[in-house]
Amino acid sequence: MPADKYTDSKIIRTIKDVIARWEPRIVITSTPIERPDDMTIVITINYDIPELNKSDSFQYRFNQ
Predict the structure, then answer these.
(1) Which of 5, 19, 25, 64 sits at 20 to 30 Å (Cα–Cα) from 37?
(2) How far apart are CA 3 and CA 34, in angstroms?
(3) How many domains are contained in the chain?
């Protein structure tokens, strides 16, 4: 896929949909996407778990 805002939006929407379906206790607070170079995408998922009064983040790096 091309590295553009449309693709980024699609990635974010997919992440939010999957988490809402499989882990509804998690509330996504932000999902910044970085592209440090043409071959890499870094997705950070910042989230809250209200039931546990916890906030955390998860980062995943995709390399082609």
Answers:
(1) 19
(2) 10
(3) 1
Q: Are 28 and 19 spatial neighbours (Cβ–Cβ below 8 Å)?
A: yes
Structure tokens at 43: 């997705």
What is the reported pTM? 0.84
Does the CA dihedral 52-62-34-18 come out positive or negative? negative
What CATH number did the domain enclosing 35 receive? 3.10.450.40
Lookup: tokens for 56 = 């955390």
Q: How far, in Å, CA of 54 to CA of 64, rounded?
A: 33
CB 44 within 8 A of CB 58: yes
Find the domain containing 20 and state its range.
5-63
